[in-house]
Task: inverse folding
């Protein structure tokens, strides 16, 4: 069953603006990951944040994790048209075997 | 080599056909996964192999039969599929299945159409 839920479902912004996507989950997790998918092809891993971490950065990406609220956010700064894609959060349960994906946010960055 | 290779990229099959999807990785990963993804939906976990043994089957119908011949290969055998099984089938691998840092590497998927 799906664990992560994301909002917004779709986000349309201008190039250069920041994009923020949120993810909520229901049960205890080992870690939370964000993935990107272009045009229904393979997923690309963006960033992983462990359950004992609160914030992580990677280039133009900033991820936060609030385990008390069971939520995470992904911020993409200074967006580019090439950032247009679907973004999924994924959580691994405490056993670590399952990685379950949220519903995803479709991001459109207009040039 | 950080690639997961899936073949074929596209597959059209009839409901009475038998076909197989193949997945290969040479990263020494000991966990491999099959996911199914319908249009505009997230990937849904189907199977997990850990050290070449099936560890999770998410109540997948028996017309889907996974196989892990060795640590680098993962197959998904298809038989008597239904049109609603048409989807993108994604293979993934990760270093270890039960360690915190389990980044998964995905293949480009096989787009399956059942006619």
Result:
């Amino acid at each position: 069953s799906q664990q992560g839920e994301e909002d917004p479902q779709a986000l349309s912004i201008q190039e250069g603006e920041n994009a923020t996507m949120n993810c909520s989950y229901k049960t205890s997790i080992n870690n939370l990951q964000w993935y990107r998918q272009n045009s229904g092809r393979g997923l690309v891993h963006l960033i992983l944040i462990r359950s004992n971490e609160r914030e992580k950065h990677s280039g133009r990406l900033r991820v936060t994790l609030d385990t008390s609220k069971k939520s995470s956010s992904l911020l993409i700064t200074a967006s580019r048209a090439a950032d247009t894609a679907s973004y999924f959060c994924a959580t691994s349960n405490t056993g670590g075997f399952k990685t379950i994906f949220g519903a995803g946010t479709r991001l459109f960055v207009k040039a | 080599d950080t690639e997961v290779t899936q073949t074929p990229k596209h597959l059209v099959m009839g409901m009475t056909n038998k076909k197989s999807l193949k997945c290969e990785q040479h990263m020494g990963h000991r966990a491999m996964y099959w996911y199914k993804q319908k249009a505009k939906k997230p990937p849904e976990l189907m199977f997990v192999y850990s050290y070449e043994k099936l560890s999770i089957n998410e109540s997948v119908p028996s017309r889907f039969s996974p196989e892990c011949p060795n640590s680098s290969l993962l197959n998904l055998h298809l038989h008597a599929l239904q049109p609603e099984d048409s989807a993108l089938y994604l293979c993934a691998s990760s270093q270890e299945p039960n360690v915190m840092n389990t980044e998964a590497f995905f293949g480009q998927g096989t787009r399956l159409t059942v006619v």
